[in-house]
Hints:
Chain A contains nine helices and ten strands. By secondary structure, chain A is of the alpha/beta class.
Amino acid sequence: MLYGALEAGGTKMVLGCYDENGTLLDRTVMPTETPAITFPKMLDYFKDKGIGALGIGSFGPLCLNPGDPHFGAIGATPKLPWRGFDLMGEFARGLGVPVALDTDVNAAALAEAQLGAAKGLGSCLYVTIGTGVGGGVIVDGKPIHGLMHPELGHMLLVPDPRDPMPQGVCPYHKGCLEGLAAGPSMEKRWGLSAKELPDDHVAWDIEANYLAQMCFNAILTLSPEKIILGGGVLQRKHIFPLIRRKTLSMLNGYIECLADSDLSDYIVEPGLDTASGLTGSYLLARQAADN
Amino acid sequence: MLYGALEAGGTKMVLGCYDENGTLLDRTVMPTETPAITFPKMLDYFKDKGIGALGIGSFGPLCLNPGDPHFGAIGATPKLPWRGFDLMGEFARGLGVPVALDTDVNAAALAEAQLGAAKGLGSCLYVTIGTGVGGGVIVDGKPIHGLMHPELGHMLLVPDPRDPMPQGVCPYHKGCLEGLAAGPSMEKRWGLSAKELPDDHVAWDIEANYLAQMCFNAILTLSPEKIILGGGVLQRKHIFPLIRRKTLSMLNGYIECLADSDLSDYIVEPGLDTASGLTGSYLLARQAADN
């Protein structure tokens, strides 16, 4: 059987086709326009491939509660044409195969837990810091849902006293992680993008403080066996040791099993590089086929 | 078969004996002294009862990783005589029956999820605010472990500008939840205990701000279907509407499925009153018997 995988993003759609062994046979990218334009193109792509199941890791918010009439649909996204679009239902009806849906970051976390940096572990947290901040959480081998799904990017943080813009840029929340630490916030604050800011700019120490607070809170709340940090901003690898050092300093010995470590094995880069989202969608397709 | 239940606290031990139907047949309380004094007494209590399995919900930190040589033991607690005590192993050897161990708050969360305020739901968060702050988390019907177990009481919070003591009293962390919102912190800050502070004292509005921040972060991180708040400080029920209002205001409509609610069905009191800890220990005993 072949498996379809869709990584649905706000700016682009990544579509792939995998074989039984998890080998990526084909991959294509298209811009995210409106559902009326983009959905038929995606449908055509997967129809041609003769897939037996489809997995989707999508931008959110998503309705993932099977008891809800909107199960499988996109929620109140700022991308208005996609608001309310029944992503799972439309593909299921259009392709006539089982379809599984989760958030892009839950899919990425699943891939990292099964095949990547957290391979062999039952739990992990995957956070991407790019144009936004999103977090996926694996507990006992499965993505967390509950009420909805984690929206970890909007956790409240303690403002850094050196931050000239301590309220951040999130239109919903004053001083939340995404508003303080995503790429657009860095660029607005310093007039330089994360790509351009020199290694020794104070921006990185402040950014590391915010990401360390997130790691600290996540350790105390979720108790993950691994924290994986990816996304555009984290391409600037020099920030990793800063984040680890500040997380350790905040923990202050409280979590014994981390106290003797420098966290270089605990707060890590993705094991699947930028492929975790699509790979996770493939894993969701396998789950859909098995159910 | 009869089931033994132990709620192991820092000041007292609550021991109970349940029948197959979950009826509490016998209950006794003893002070928590040293393991040398208290452990033999507890062992005698359970030996007399002829139980077939024992469940323990204990103060922590605990080692709950089956692969760890300290599995089942108490970790770096400030109660020094109990540090390193092999709670699970000693009872298993002393009684010759299966023993299950979890944190007191995970046990309470389990009881609330199976029989209490979150009955019928797969997920919930239980937080107790008393002499300390502890949190138990249920995901997919089971307590979270992962690296260790949640230590949610030490989450970082944004200081309230009206707080005369914004660093809190936690010896480990500046400005963490327990240091800012537990009973001893309120008493130190205001010179009056949570029991004594009048309803209209600004203390309650500040306390509600801190607990709302915790609820907000927990919703975004864990996505629980219910948040249950208990413990001594929360006996002052007038704080519940304040916490709900502030949580809604912080969410600012971001979590759609909560936006049209006043959260009176979402942030709630325990359904089992103060019995959730012992009841959860009984449920752990049943799990131990089944394994």
